[in-house]
Amino acid sequence: MRKYIAEFIGTFVLTAFGCGTAVAANSIFLSMNAAIPVAFTTLLIAFAFGLSVVAMAYSIGNISGCHINPAVSVGMLAAGRMSVKDCVGYVVAQCIGALAAALFLWRIFGARDSLGQNGYGEASTLGLGAGSILILEIVMTFVFVLVVLAVTSRKEFASAAGLVIGLTLTLIHIFGIPFDGTSVNPARSFGPAIVVGGDALAQLPVFIIAPLIGGVLAALVYRLLFTEAGNPAEEPDTDAEEVREDAGEAEPDEADAAEEEEADGEER
């Protein structure tokens, strides 16, 4: 249960601070009757999502692994690094956390027509259709989940994993926000879409299906590249083997030296 609570909190923070930054940034420029510089707001929103992941990774990471994303959990399941029971529990907790965050934003901003929801067509800054957004989300999620699987599989990366994952999510948002607001996370899309309703809810399936496909593809590639036969990281450490061999060869010498010392002691 502790893991599920951690995932709820992590996804709440990610959605509240990420989507909340998007709503706040756009609201400020609209209130000023100024043209919204897309590049500026894109950076603000991208870093809000990325830093949210970094913050959660170093706070709840040791409890649940800080997936806070159904695509990551499904990718972990497909990679053989998670049980079906935990995967279902994680996804449910993540979706509830994102929904709670969307309700929180609705209460804070006093309106629910814009809560950082994803969209295509007229809702896309660049006007991309559903087909293009589907491909885009698959590719972006593939990259993100592959990075997550890779950096969390090596002990030497453990201390920097949260930072690497957070910066990767920042990069993906910088690229993807002008297209569809960037999802790569079904829960993050689910919460705002449920509260906003209308077109956001009608378009939601794309932002659930595409990230899940991307996560599974990343897991398949991970299993192909990071197997015992194909990944040097999984192979025995040559230096360690040499050290063990040297230690094994030295043992008889040490034993002989001990016997000689005992013999000298008896003679004396």
Automatic annotation (TrEMBL):
GO terms for cellular component: plasma membrane. One of its GO terms (molecular function) is water channel activity. Coiled coil: none annotated. Belongs to the MIP/aquaporin (TC 1.A.8) family. It is found in: Cell membrane. PANTHER family: AQUAPORIN TRANSPORTER, MIP17260P. Pfam families: MIP. PROSITE patterns: MIP (PS00221), PROKAR_LIPOPROTEIN (PS51257). It is a multi-pass membrane protein. This is Aquaporin. Keywords: Cell membrane, Membrane, Transmembrane, Transmembrane helix, Transport. Residues 231-268 are annotated as: Disordered. The chain crosses the membrane at residues 34-58, 87-109, 129-151, 158-180, 200-222. Residues 234-268 have a biased composition (Acidic residues).
